[in-house]
Amino acid sequence: MSAVKLDGKATAARIKADLATRVAALKDRGITPGLGTVLVGDDPGSQIYVAGKHRDCAEVGIASIRVDLPATATQKDVEAAIDELNSSPACTGYIVQLPLPKHLDTMALLEQMDPAKDADGLHPVNLGRLVHMVDAPLPCTPHGIVLLLQEYDVPIKGADVVVVGRGITVGRSLGLLLTRRSENATVTLCHTGTQDLAAHVRRADIVVAAAGVPELITRDMVKPGAAVLDVGVSRINGKIAGDVAPDVEEVAGFLTPNPGGVGPMTRALLLSNVVEAAERA
Ligand SMILES: Nc1nc(=O)c2c([nH]1)NC[C@@H]1CN(c3ccc(C(=O)N[C@@H](CCC(=O)O)C(=O)O)cc3)C=[N+]21
Q1: How far is the CA of 274 from the centre of ligand 1 (A)?
Q2: Band of pLDDT at residue 281, cut at 50, 70 and 90
Q3: Which intervals hold domain Tetrahydrofolate dehydrogenase/cyclohydrolase NAD(P)-binding (predicted)?
Q4: By C-alpha distance, which of 185, 169, 178, 189 is closest to 127?
Q5: Residue 200, φ and ψ in degrees, nearest 5
Q6: Measuring from atom 14 of ligand 1, which residue has the nearest CA?
Q7: How does pLDDT run across 126-165, given as a tens digit for each residue?
């Protein structure tokens, strides 16, 4: 058997084509959406991601504003950059690239952002709205995962979903998203304290691997026919090493390639949050 490829790259291209139309309509009304990025330090991975986001913006007609600060930037320096984007009319949405250098207080900086301009959906107010199940910008990776499953008609309602990893950007937020009434999945959130990971994964109709541990999910753990989504972005000798072992392809019913799976969806949903914020404003 071999798994159906959950093609994030192709699905993201369709989403971006739709966004380009909506951006053109906004421009006809005199509104140009603009994405800001705040990048602190010179981590090569973060540089690549931020550059990619600006390329994506150009592709759909969103203006972009890039704020790069040195690794030595103080809390006050980053606060000043956030204040600037909060008050800039050209910036309709922005992100602070994570993780920030350790000497900075990430939570304080996130709280300082205008929640209406939160393109990542990670502001505590917007995550709180997700907990309350009211409308808010959604975290990009979880939202991208849900849309990718829907694109391939993978049933979510009633599915047993095992999410591996409890990080804010993916695992924890995805649990909140999938347990809303509109998705109605049953979610088990596994993490480093989970006693028998394999036993949980084996029962899952949908497995989302977001632990950042290369090849954590092995073939023997996956129920035949299950949908497996690989969110891993570790690197070994510069090459992406996902959380899912390659031979899972032989048992899974659906599998994301990595690269070309969840990553492009994350980027497309970031653009979508920017466009939606501009449409609301
Ligand atoms: N505030 C914030 N928001 C984020 O959304 C955020 C972040 N911080 N910090 C880092 C993670 C990671 N992340 C990725 C997005 C796209 C790809 C992506 O498109 N990857 C390509 C491959 C690119 C390559 O080859 O390096 C793919 O999967 O096809 C990967 C990783 C967003 N993150």
Answers
A1: 17
A2: confident
A3: 139-280
A4: 169
A5: -70, -50
A6: 263
A7: 999 999 999 999 999 999 999 999 999 999 999 999 999 9
pLDDT tens sequence across 159-177: 999 999 999 999 999 999 9
- For residue 233, how many other CB atoms are within 10 A of its CB? 18
Amino acid letter, 112: Q
- What is 213-258 written as a DSSP string? -TT-B-GGGSPTT-EEEE---EEETTEEE-SB-GGGGGT-SEE--S
The CA distances from residue 155 to 19, 103, 185, 249, 278, in Å, are 26, 43, 9, 19, 32
CA distance 206 to 252: 10
Taking residues 21-28, report their average pLDDT.
98
**Going by DSSP bridges, is the β-strand pair 234-236/239-241 parallel, antiparallel, or unpaired?**
antiparallel
In the chain, the domains with their CATH numbers are 29-117+265-280 (3.40.50.10860), 138-261 (3.40.50.720)
ipTM over 0.85: yes
Q: Which residues, at least 6 apart from 83, have a Cβ–Cβ distance to it below 8 Å?
A: 112
Residue 213 CA to residue 31 CA, distance in Å, equals 43
pLDDT tops 70 at residue 1: no
Distances in whole angstroms, Cα of residue 147 to Cα of each of 51, 142, 153, 169, 225: 24, 9, 10, 16, 19
Neighbours of 117 (CB within 10 A): 24
Do 147 and 269 form a contact (C-beta atoms < 8 A)?
A: yes
Residue 140 CA, closest ligand 1 atom number: 5
Catalytic residue among 7, 120, 230, 243: 120
